[in-house]
Amino acid sequence: MRTIWKGAISFGLVNIPVKLFPATESKTIKFNYLHKECHSPINYQKLCPVCNREVSQDEIVRGYEYEKGRFVILNEEDMDNLPTATTKTVDIIDFVDLSEIDPIYFSKPYYLAPSEGGQKAYLLLKEAMKETGKIAIAKVTIRSTENLVCLRVYENTVLMETMYYPDEIRSGQALPELNAPVPLHENEIKMATQLINNLSARFDPAKYKSDYREALMQLIEAKVAGEQIETPQVREPGNVVDLMEALKASLKATENEKNLEKKPRVKKKAAK
Hints:
Elements (H helix, E strand, L loop, with lengths): L4 E7 L2 E9 L24 E2 L4 E2 L7 E6 L2 E5 L1 H5 L8 E9 L8 E9 L4 H14 L1 E9 L2 E10 L2 E7 L22 H13 L12 H14 L18 H20 L10
Parallel strand pairs: 1-7
Antiparallel strand pairs: 1-2, 2-8, 3-4, 5-6, 7-9, 8-11, 9-10, 10-11
Helix pairs in contact: 3-5
């Protein structure tokens, strides 16, 4: 894995030199856009509509639109002189319980590994967080952006996960669809709760996979091999006409599945 940032974890008077690595990778299948006539890849150009010409990267500057059509320009020197103390440190602010943080705050995970001379302090922080069950809330500046992050123990590493600031999370109260009063019957709640219990299981990440990505790769491989493509029938979701009947049918199906799972398998006797 390639290092994307170097710095130090800072808490109290302790500084732990670390390196940052991506902890995830996108498995999304990417496509190139081609010209339909000749199948050549399409190029994207940075064009100035006023000068009517393509501009190079060194001609482009940052501009913040403070009024419609009016911009204030920020150059590299302005960005470098911003008064942030977190350009080279993961500055820990608090240690908290993970259960207190709603998952909506989490954005993207990274691995933190110790740099030269930081192995012992890194291990000490990791073991102390394991012992207390706490995670750290911190700030760090990466690529000109100050991020709110949390540090937590994952497997044998300290994982750093970027977080959204509270003012970046929109309130669901703004959705008008949720404001209309809808009556719920006690039996409906009871049956829905029972259905959730029937479908409950221990979280096993290995059982989840992208069916869409697998089907897309099979389609691509079949096209490359020149095979005939068969399109499977896709079941269209129906409208819920009778909620109670739908709940009853779902409960019956899930209970049958549970009974089959619990039923002991009869061992076949070996032939004499």
